[in-house]
Amino acid sequence: MKANMFLALDRCSDVLFYLTSIDSDVAILGLNSSVVAECFTDDVHRLDRDVLLIPRKITEITEQSFERCLEVAKSVLAGCSPIDTASARRLAKTHRLSVVVVTPSSIRVIDESQINFMHQSSTRSKYIEIHMQPFLKIFTAPNSRASIEKNLYMLGNIIERALKLDVGTVVSTASDDRKRLLSLTHLDIILFYMGFTKRERRLIIEVYPTELLLTWLSYR
Amino acid sequence: MTTLLIYIALASLILSLTSIAIAVLLYRDVRYVLNSLIDEFGLALIARKRYRRIKRYILVKMVCHDGIDIRRFGEDLEKRISSFLGPVVKMDCGLTLISFRPDLNRAIFRVVGSSICVKYSLIALSLQHFASEGCIVVPLRTSGLLSRIRKFAGYKR
Hints:
The complex is a heterodimer. Chain A contains nine helices and seven strands; from the N terminus they run βαβαβαβαβαβααβαα. Chain A is α/β, with parallel strands linked by helices. Chain A has one domain (57-219): TIM Barrel, CATH 3.20.20. Chain B folds into two domains: 2-47; 54-153, Alpha-Beta Plaits (2-Layer Sandwich). Chain B is rod-shaped, with a radius of gyration of 31 Å. Chain A binds chain B through residues 21-22, 136-137, 139-140, 178-181, 183, 185-186, 189-190, 192-193, and chain B through 63, 65, 119, 122-123, 126-127, 129-131, 133, 136, 138-140.
């Protein structure tokens, strides 16, 4: 079952365009909880196939606002994007299910040491979720100081370390623009370009997302 | 008689040691001369192939938003990909649009060059809509046989 754990689109027509034209074989799709409620609670927007929709909420956290991320309702799968080292380390140590979101703004605090901490955690409920679209947006900002080569190098190191220690790693498209959508095939090609094998790519795109879903359902 | 045999043995020992010493001293020079001879007569080209050129076909799906003409985009796609790859990569990799079917939203590209070219072409096709606005291109399948790709695309019934 192919899974895209987060799609940041907020209009129903865009979500339907993604499901019908871009990724017609996605089986699990994560959307903002407000979008799920708006688009799919009534039968206005019908799909011709079965898709499992997961309500998501992605929050940026600091040490002061740490609890805000984990206090989300149990019907929503929360993702926490730490922007300081202290909150990242606390996420690795908490006994609850934690999904650490990696974006260009949080990658400097989520390094290989963070993966080691997550591996040493007493519970096997720590997951890394990589949002690919913000990394690729560096292409469209030529004057940006961030280097896409450096970001992808750091990302490759994180994924490699996580796979080696069997820490759950999920890659989501996190597309927020209708004109710059990414499909799961694109993600597969980007991971292939970064040097991951077919088995590793299948783990990232199919196996770990399903495992995350089952873990979340058991924690509810 | 015994003394003669001892002299012969000593002489042969000295001869062997001298030849070993000469071989050690002249090893680098002899190797250099031999390599120069191999290069001169083109034997290196026979011994191992330096450049391996492969050919692959990539089938892509094109998804266009309202207001974008797929025909114009398809005709322009090869130029877009070439500019996205840049002249340095184009020195090594050849990418040609060989078939375009606007009715099926499908196109087939031929990639010729070293093995890394397929990787470069796939990533360029996948990310071209980030560099400039246009249709979204999703690579569907890669194969070494054009007939197999055409069959998969639904060109042949």
